[in-house]
């Protein structure tokens, strides 16, 4: 079968043209149809007048083609030839037998000849076959038949066409169409197989590139060509399936119809072609899989080689990522770790390539071994240098800590106590005791430090170390000068010692260990110490380090504050919108996130995006700190809104604080304190600023930056006061007007008050002299409110105070007496020409003076405003200050003096007021 199929493929290309040239133009109607009783293929040569004129080459091609159609098994049985010459002559019979005997390529079994039907020609044929049988050189019998009936005795009618009295359906045109289509398909299969073979040969002969780019290009080109050939295979398979369907069409349309042997043979031929096409595709796919894998492995190898030479570890010198700040020296280990991890990962990649049966195992394995050896050497050397660096860091910390402790010691020695011999000796002893700790801590000298740690001193680290060494020398110089001064005092020298540092009221706080290194002196601060004398230089150094530590504490606590705000917003506020936790939120808390948290997010955004960055910019120039607070005065007002909402927030927390929702959020955040403690952070933070500014003012007395710091402190205190006042203002109840129309709340506080009325209030007056009223006063520019303070408790919790409105005085009708005989904590406020007098007692003289001063400012401001309006009314008659009395009560007032008292008095007359 294989030989017949191969022969068919070889002959198909040549027989295609000859078949059309011989069978169609010359009408050579010979066909291979039907089978003998033993399955032998039957080839019929029907009557054809021009048979002898057909060229031998055409005849040979046709016969060869017909013998190649049956299967090898059928062809091995032998072919049966049927020659129909019933209407012809003996000469035609002779020529046919001679040509078949000389040109038939297959194995013959029998030759049937339907002799001429005419009597004379039949007789001649009988005689001729006897005479020329040997000339035909046929080894098979030649059976002469008189009629088709005789032929039916040898071959069944169902295997013969109608021309031979049989029932076999035969259409010569359809037969040629099918055979042509089969041949075309065979050519397609052969061409496709040749293309695949050529492509496979090209792939096998292709040399693998030595770089990544060429490998990627080759892989892409081969993949594209593979896709094209797969498309050709798919198209050829579709063509064969269509052809097979066409051949089977008669039987599929008519269930009673049966395919004749030739049609069955055609089906087998197409199926064999499809099978071979499928085998070819499978072989191609297997080859392509191996080739594609090899190309990918080649690409992996090239990447591995590039990474090997690129990431090959050098000697472990300190990498460029070493931070210049000593507090960050320990991060050097991570800088060493990164290249080491890359090399180890590359070695692991190489192991994976080896385990995946890579074709270049012999090239990969040595590189992996080399990588691991280098990694071990690098890790050992890096560990040594990290150990040295750690020792250098520890020594650096000791030097820095010793210097700072020394500065604090010098700053904490009170100058007045050192003026006596005993005090000087005590201070001198403290200094000598402290200096002895340098030997105990084994502090290295600068030369010893450089000698021992030169291996790890990069330019960046050396610059930082130089600063510490300079700091050490400065501190030593300060101690030397202080010792000289104290020794003179201890020796009872009459000349006073030049003070070397201001005495701080309290020891400065130590900086957080997380804080960055003390900043370098700014240009303005650096020049003065270098040009000044030793004592002045020491003083400035002390001031500078006090500044530095306060700045560090401010910035570090600011960072912690921002982190805490972020944890509250993300861990609590955001979780209230989490659908997974919605079932844990109590009903009382639903849709009340703004009440609980207020404008906390606004405060967080301000500090994170603006204020923290500006404070960090002040590290190198602490003198800009006051300017920073002044610049953000308006932005810091966000705390007023937060504090106003705080009572509502606390009330809501008391209702819902024990809910599972808050417990779950606290567990996730790993907070030790509950949410209410963190909600107090903003209130605590705004008060922390004024404490830090006060500390900085203590260190900067008589400094050029004192004015700005004082103004910044006043700003923060004013904000705190505004926040505090606003919280009291929102607690006022019973006032029918709009408090916002009264302007800014200037002062508020609780006082003891006695009242005195001229008309009909003698009894009240007498009673009031002995029993003062407790009132909370609110001072505005337009009005003075009298309220009664109420403090209640709810469920055991202290409730925020509320203020019930009782009375109000228009400031335009008010006068003030600053001193009341018998008590310097009292002052008078009288109203409408002393018809009503309020004696007010403060809790302290300082508080009383503050209120008197603020009230005088209000009254003086109103007086100046009236004078300004009067100057515009130059047409007013003498004695009239401005306009109608009903327009402004203050415009009808005047100031009078009383013996023993000084006051501002309001009268109802029309005289011009004067102070």
TrEMBL record:
One of its GO terms (biological process) is intracellular signal transduction. The keyword Phosphoprotein applies. Residues 489-531 are annotated as: Disordered. Residues 546-726 form the DH domain. GO terms for molecular function: guanyl-nucleotide exchange factor activity. Belongs to the MCF2 family. PANTHER family: GUANINE NUCLEOTIDE EXCHANGE FACTOR MCF2L2-RELATED, RHO GUANINE EXCHANGE FACTOR-RELATED. The lineage of its organism: Eukaryota, Metazoa, Chordata, Craniata, Vertebrata. Keywords: Guanine-nucleotide releasing factor, Phosphoprotein, Signal. InterPro entries: CRAL-TRIO_dom, CRAL-TRIO_dom_sf, DBL_dom_sf, DH_dom, GDS_CDC24_CS, PH-like_dom_sf, PH_domain, RhoGEF_Guanine_NuclExch_SF. Residues 1-21 form the signal peptide. This is MCF.2 cell line derived transforming sequence-like 2. Coiled coil: none annotated. Residues 738-860 form the PH domain. Residues 66-172 form the CRAL-TRIO domain.
